[in-house]
Please model this.
Amino acid sequence: MPATIAEKIFSQKCGRSVRAGDVVMAPVDAAMIHDITGPLAVRVFREMGGERVYDPERIIMLFDHQVPADSIPAAENHVFMRQFADEQGIHNYDLLEGVCHQVVMEKGRAAPGEIVVGTDSHTCTYGAAGAFATGIGSTDMGFVLKFGALYFRVPESILVEVEGAFNRRVGAKDLILSLAGDIGADGATYMALEFTGKAMHDMNMAGRMTCANMAIEMGAKAGIVTPDAATWEYVTARRDIEPFDLAGDPDAEYRERRHYDVTGLAPQVAVPHNVDNVVDVTKVAGTKVDQVFIGSCTNGRYEDLAEAAEVMGNADRFADGVRVIVIPASRTEYLKALRGGLIERFVAAGALVEAPCCGPCMGGAFGLLAPGEVSLSTSNRNFRGRQGSAQASVYLSSPATAAASALYGEITDPREV
Amino acid sequence: MRVWKFGNDIDTDAIIPGRFLTIYDPAELAKHAFEGTRDAFAKEAGEGDIVVAGTNFGCGSSREHAPLALLGAGVKVVVAKSFARIFYRNAVNTGLLPLVCPEAETIRDGETVSVDIAAGFIEVDGRRLAVEPIPGFLKEIVDAGGLVAYAKDLERVETCSTE
Model:
């Protein structure tokens, strides 16, 4: 029977054909918990009578939201989680490796056909690896820790076919922001986005992760990029797994088939205070910014930092009065950027380069905004109060647009730099 | 029993801002519910009050602190035109009842609401508004009083691959 990727993944797990709308108790291949939502999941696991987790090797633990600990309660959470990891024999990446979604991907903990859950809404990032990956709450995670399975409603899928080629200094983030604007903040609620088409397959893994990461900003349960040679190259370099075909069937039943062409797409900016409030950069060019944040699970990879550095060209100073915060998404990406000379350029130009973590996007650790301040951020959410004061404003863009804006102190079209 | 009316796309950062996520106690979280966006809520919301919203209530972060903050404030029911997926599930799991009401936008701030789940409607200042039933498998969790109560006595679960 023709099927979408999501239907194929659940069918394969269940050993029988399941369709969109079916509710199944499916086994979970991997489960990610971090320092903010993990402690609650552990408490729930105990309240459920949990003594031993279902399989310590399938649990991924790390800290990234409040690292190094920014308060005594945060430090206590870290201690609590470390004790749980020791007691259960769970490998804990602790605060050493970086932002959870980058770490799960680069450690090869998600692969095509797998079901992965995490207590973080951007868990959908691993769809870039061809996994069915979705964010869940701490109580669902308590259940997963105990039983290794969870109730899922197999979602309907929207096929997103992306053709064409990006213009210079336009890329994955501009595409996904334009999709958010088009589909809307709840246009894909309870559904999976299935990405395919030439422009998706031409994209490197960093760009695919940017796209899958923001599926949740349209309400989607998952955002799966159809696996191809690049996916398998990425995954097999990280773990022992035999490649296989996984693609939606041409005659599968999609809720909708949407076609996009990125040729001629302008740099996109999400303006306050919703992610689907998206305009061409030209519409907001000239808006003064107090802070520029380049980083996060959306855009904190080497490729993103290189994109920002390319826009800087020979410029050796960011604009006066702008705080530029650069945070690589992981230790691995940090080292790549360091060895590639990017970090030195950012620091020399006046940026604050922080150790891998969620940074200002956490809205509680550091890099917070005062009332009336404006931030341009490469992260994924511009909700009121997301990066500090509810009276501050957050704009979202690509690393190229962020770098151009950092040079001029106002939102700037990177094509004009 | 009063209604606290909100608009569309109310995100979980608005319900409970990121800087309070080291708190897990519902009563403590409730002190910061809607802080910065609707400060009166934490001060005045009381036992049995109801949150009513438009579309996509609870979008954004998966933080379960959001339903816990509402529960801590005494809110046991949220009525919305539609819910974001993770919030909906978190609400059911923690014992906060999320009710989909196509006519939610006709409810006004400060009105009085009574809820009759079994009958499938809510009554707002004398008007009866239909609410959609909780879908099958989630109903079992609601009836158990949340996922913890549901899962407590289970030794193991049959998965779709073993059933």
About this structure: The first strand of chain B starts at residue 3 and ends at 5.
